Amino acid sequence: MAFTFNELAETLEQQRQNRYGALLAVAHDLRNPLAALKTTVALTERRRSQGTLSPEQLDQQQRRIATQVNRLNRMVSDLVDMTRIELGRVELDTQTNDLRDLVIEADELFEDASPIHQLVMDLPPEPLMVCCDATRIGQVLNNLISNAIKYSPQGGVVELRAGTEGRWAWVEVEDHGLGIAPKDHLRIFEPFQRVGRKEEIPGVGLGLSAARRLMEAHEGRIEVESALGKGSTFKIRLPLRQKDEGPKGERPGASMDQRP
Ligand code: ADP
Predict the structure, then answer these.
(1) pTM
(2) Closest CA to 119 of 80, 92, 146, 153
(3) How much distance in Å is there from the Cα of 40 to the middle of ligand 1?
(4) H or E stretch at 6
């Protein structure tokens, strides 16, 4: 009993460390755009009081401020959204979609994201019809592609593939980056789990847990195959739309609130 108690205490302590570690990472990430804002505002004030602020400089400073404010806004919105998903407080808006369109949209979004990465797409000629919330599945794909880029800091090819397997439609995102040790393959889908000493790469550790929740809410799956130093392949699966399903594909469990 003492052993179990100690184990429990250790788990709780680990969770506490993860939570505060994540909080620290968020605070740290928010501090950078805030510091840039502070510098820009101080500089503008100094020039204004010295009477040396030209209209062009004012324009430039305003653009800088707008960029940083947008960045902060995006970070805070992402954090709020992912926390809501984690808490199961998201309604899905399911429609019939061709999964290939969502892959193409995600590819377009990241096409010019990094000069040292090349996105390569391999899609089947036939449609991959699924019932899903296009925004949320887009969000999952964006997260996987963004991770593939982030965690292959030396650059390289990121492959996007899609196809069918039995009653499933699937999409794979493969990178040739840092990879993940087998012992961490399950852990990375838990909230706030960042593995493999990747502190210098920005992130909070909520993307994959949100992705897992979203895939489960779609009665789908997410899985990973990866080897340290070789790269990773993340695969999502969604049930192919059945002929007798309604246009919106209403299925029980389509709301995240229905999770136990
Ligand atoms: P974040 O990227 O914000 O840390 P995620 O939940 O998206 O959060 O990922 C959790 C962890 O899984 C990451 O911190 C990283 O350690 C690992 N990881 C995710 N994707 C990859 C990848 N493509 N290659 C290597 N490691 C990855």
Answers:
(1) 0.80
(2) 146
(3) 32
(4) helix 2-50
